[in-house]
Amino acid sequence: MTEVTTPADEAPVLEVNDLEVRFTSGRSTVYAVNDVSFTMRAGETLALVGESGSGKSTIAKAVVGLVEPASGEVLLRGEAQAGDRVRRDRATRGDIQMVFQNPVGSLNPFMTVEANIAEPLRNRGVAKAERAARVRELLTVVGLDADTLGPRKPGEISGGQAQRVSIARALASEPAVLIADEAVSALDVSVQATVLNVLRRVVDEEQVAMLFISHDLAVVRNVSDTVAVLHMGQLCEIGPTEDILAAPAHHYTAALRAAVPEPGVPLGDPGMTDADPPSPRIRPTGCSFRDRCLAATSRCAEVLPPLTMVGPERAVACHHPLDRDAVASAIPSVTAQGALA
Ligand SMILES: Nc1ncnc2c1ncn2[C@@H]1O[C@H](COP(=O)(O)OP(=O)(O)OP(=O)(O)O)[C@@H](O)[C@H]1O
């Protein structure tokens, strides 16, 4: 399949190649992730976007080793992460860290903020004096005051502060890859912006590769370099965030894009039928979006559209991709250069 890589020259930190994940119980199988590939480099953020059930969290779980792929591979710094799960978990425990939707729930409520952040340092054998200094440093990285917040318990700080503590705790392991799974979805919009800023800074300063999972294309705009759009476990479209938001090539991306609020611009036509997505229990044939797509033809039901390059860094899996110029001119907030207003 077509390999889309980001422009930097360095070797990828994480490669996901032809990943397939299924959940089987009895005679029923859920086809959760179908032939998904992407590459991530240090200091870059890739956003996985799609509705509930599109397979985003399952990809994250396959990357950290919590689910075993049916086929395909996950490479961390070029090394396969397959095989013995226990061994793999141990090898990647520090290298890949996750930040979840519910920050308070992912911290130990009985330990202070400082102790929560210090725990992974202690597990890595960092000496006590050094630990204290590093905890202060990490709190500063996420923009929190060590003196006032360090001694508090997670229940005594706000949701946004707790999420920043979770990020600091994740960074304590010096991960190569940070997975943020709906990490700002539960926060107020004003707090979301602060946490997104922290994440952006962390990616840049600590040079981690961030896999940012969100159902919301509007959130992704502010944080990711690359967007990968998923529909029912299939990769619809992947490429630079700005280009994709300015002119989606896949009809599903265009539908998600139409729902992104723009100041002073009414929401666009949803651009898709109101048919339900297909059952994830049926082995996919053709394009998974076809029943919801206004441009679908019989070919879309018969032949799975291959992921095909449509620009130097862009690929789309669609037999009838949108004309990029036409889409750009149809979105009023997009300037002639394709930059978002
Ligand atoms: N442990 C499991 N057993 C059976 N099916 C599962 C399991 N985990 C996920 N699924 C199914 O796999 C598909 C993908 O789910 P996944 O949670 O990865 O989607 P998602 O895009 O992350 O959705 P959400 O935003 O709701 O978390 C769904 O059909 C889901 O019901």
TrEMBL record:
GO BP annotation list: peptide transport; transmembrane transport
GO molecular function, one term: ATP hydrolysis activity
ABC transporter domain residues: 14-257
Keywords: ATP-binding, Nucleotide-binding, Transport
Keyword ATP-binding annotated: yes
UniProt KW Mitochondrion keyword: no
Highest taxon listed in the record's lineage: Bacteria
Family: Belongs to the ABC transporter superfamily.
Family matches, as NCBIfam families: oligo_HPY
Protein name, as recorded: Peptide/nickel transport system ATP-binding protein/oligopeptide transport system ATP-binding protein
